[in-house]
Amino acid sequence: MNRLDWNTLDTRGQCAALSRPVQSRAESLRAGVEQIIARVRADGDVALRELTAKLDRCALHAIEVSQREWNEAEARLAPELKAAIDEAASRIDAFHRAAAPQPVALDTARGVRVERMLRPIQRVGLYVPAGSAPLPSTALMLGVPARIAGCAEVVLCSPVRPDGRCDDAVLYAARVTGVHRVFKLGGAQAIAAMAYGTESVPKCDKLFGPGNAWVTEAKLQVSADPEGAAIDMPAGPSEVLVIADDSANPAFVAADLLSQAEHGPDSQVILLSPSLAMLDAVEVEVASQCAVLPRAGIAEQALSQSRLIAVSSLAQAVEVSNRYAPEHLIVQVNEPRSLLGSIESAGSVFLGPWTPESVGDYCSGSNHVLPTYGYARSYSGVSVASFQKQITVQELSPEGLRAIGPCTATLAAAEQLEAHRRAVTLRLAALEDAA
């Protein structure tokens, strides 16, 4: 990991210290995704079968997972894994139900009723990756809030294996969360199928879930097309920032850094500490623990773009963290909650030595589909609200229009929108005539 001292860096150096690995939007990637989307739109299921045979080395007979396949997947799954999925789903459900938006009805003036109605997005598409490792936890994180929101149809796509099956645990998680249909599709072609629809895959209103550069590029392209689909948020590689003082356990800190570094070679991990001894100890621990990881090669590539940064104080650490806006923020200090009020930008925060980021990935109850690449400055993680539309309603009585009509007319006149003004003043005049 690269070792830096924040207070010896100039402005350019500080920007470089917090720079992320460059996300590829090379012309070849954009063009490749455009071609895939165009093929799927033009040829539907035929294109999906051809692309799956080429890219996933599987000749699909049926694109959709059958009920028999769902049942067989559940039967093959180890009881302890099914129990863990059930347990995680229950906590995710409990938290998301408690945090879900609620309808609002309020009289903002006498005779002026303003309301907020909640309506589910009717058909949503969930993408669950299965590249170097399948992610049943992502099926839980997307399926649970979609069920709570009340979406009429929930569609899930996950890459097929060469043997013609989707991952058993992903299918079980989909069943537990109430996903209606699952398709054996991955990559940009899955995004295109859900965004535009084919003979087998229904067109979805909004797409959710992480993926590789091809999936991310496809989501960006379909979201920019009025005929495509909305998306949950822009996505980038996984990342974690840890703030640690001299009370932290270096082994715990190193383990947290590596838990994100093993995600992928373009992941990034950062440690901020006012303790030079802590930075030294964590550096040693990272090297020791990384050496025995099955995904050590991946983690080492991520660590080459990661940082150990000395800061002058915990307050400065929070300032730097807010500037970086991490996907995951771990606070391993003597009084972690004392820093919480100063934290402005982070996808999810983990307080204290006994709260590894891993619990948020799987089963604490919060959502692990979070803004990355600095988007935590303006985006939130996936929640029930992500699967809903919020519609406002207003109803005025004659008394209400008399109360707020003059205000409306004055503001409309100031904006030189005469028709707006007259829509109010004509009604006010009618009320006066009727009095």
Short description:
This protein is of the alpha/beta class and 435 residues long.
Globally, the shape reads globular
The N- and C-terminal alpha carbons lie at a distance of: 79 Å
Look at the helices and sheets and give the structural class: alpha/beta
Regions with pLDDT < 50 over 5+ consecutive residues?
Answer: none
- The helix count comes to 17
Query: Which percent range describes the beta-strand content?
Result: 15-25%
Biggest sheet statistics: 6 strands, parallel
Radius of gyration: 25 Å
Strand neighbour order, sheet with most strands? 1-11-10-9-12-13
Helix residue percentage:
40-55%
- What is the typical, i.e. mean, pLDDT? 96
According to DSSP, the number of beta strands is 14
